[in-house]
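Could you help me review a protein record that somebody else here produced? Do not assume that whoever made the record got everything right. The record follows directly below this note.
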Amino acid sequence: MSYARVLCVGLVGVTGQLVEVEVDLAAGLPGVVISGLPDTALHEARDRVRAAVVNSGQRWPNRRITLNLLPATLPKFGSAFDLAIAVALLGGSGELPLLPLDGVAVLGELGLDGTVRPVRGVLPMVAAAAKAGVQRVIVPAGNTAEAAVVPGLLVRGVDTLHRLVAFVRDGTPLIEPPVDAPPPSAPGPDLAEVAGQGLGRRALEVAAAGGHHLALIGPPGAGKTMLAERLPSILPELDDEAALEVTAVHSIAGLLPAGGRLIRRPPFQAPHHTATVPSIVGGGSGLARPGAISLAHRGVLLMDEAPEFSKAALEALRQPLEHGRVLLARSRGSAEYPARAQLVIAANPCPCANPAGDDRCECPPLARRRYLGRLSGPLLDRIDLQVRLPPMRAAELMETTSHESSAVVARRVAAARAAAAERWAPLGRRLNAEIPGPELRRAPWRLPGRVTVELRSRLDSGSLSARGFDRVVRLAWTIADLDGRARPDAGDVGEAIALRTGEGI
């Protein structure tokens, strides 16, 4: 026998596709040729696989070897094909009977000594295999817990090529996924720790309930960062679909927590203000990697000291905020990552950042305008709530009355989200922030004229854009949900306008 075929999975972005690894051995000058759009890591696989096969006690065929990865038009990245290549090669040379691997997807990187090492992106790879009809997968032992997250699959692990060879030849058992219970999650920051700032707490609750973006402007020490860091603590846990999406992105980035279990808590990302555009939206050589906004998918992206970020990094957020995804085009193909994160911007009102606020600001008016002018109008127009926080007062800081905890606020947020999900179910949406503007202006959701008098006036005067009009209406629905009303009234719209416009950034 000179031909063999083993299944594997290729990954571009978060999209996986079943790949057939073909091997043909022919007479001629010994050598290895790899076709099927391989990258550099795959070209180097010939040396890794040869060393692993020999050091596992198997015979390397002294023949001309042709490796082909189908579909040939799909770019192949990474080292996850090593194990499938080694097994296919041993099958084609007659060393292994491959019938036990019929219909089984095989993933793993090989070390020179024959060990099978964990790889990135196993979760989306295995999910793609299951979608293609594969029912059994063999992955590195370090990835078994991650792969076992996908329902309906029989997952087994291997730590060495020798173990896999023994399984194919003699039926030696492979490694089963761990069944231990997940460790308890450590408690995070709590809203009860935030002194004062009733306006900021209300804005945070509205943002959490509706999935709205938030800008917090205020002097140092006002509590901007403390509030923003506590937004994930009042968000509901991720459902199965969202948890799979978030875990897949972190798997590709190599940031999955130990144990490979589903990420249930909304993620939180807070890049430094020196972060580059690729680190924010994704990029890198070869296959583009996810950036901070994708790692914050279904969670929170905090841009602290936002005016200090480069203008390019801030403007790069505009398209992901609008569409909830990032498309990274490269010469060898495009990678698309989800990016439906809640953006929180925190900024001082001026360069001097006097803790007393505007009363003692030492900056000339032009410097103030230039500083916050780094946050462009089109970017701010996409941020639903724009709140100006006052300086912290001694009475607030020394107050002994206990404030509401994150758990208490989270219950109200969950109830508001449940009401919104039930209302928007016919549209296939769950959050108020996701509802398209035309739907909000169409019966039966269109608000009556007596409720939107001030809102219409602001649109006609130019103080609100059409996008801003729709975002105020979404905020009004969220406020009504939090307060237990079936529809927004004029008071809800008034509060939404105040939360949207603040005092003018």
User: Anything to note?
Assistant: The chain has three domains: 3-170, 191-407, 435-505. The mean pLDDT is 89. The two ends are 74 Å apart (CA to CA). The longest strand covers residues 15-26.
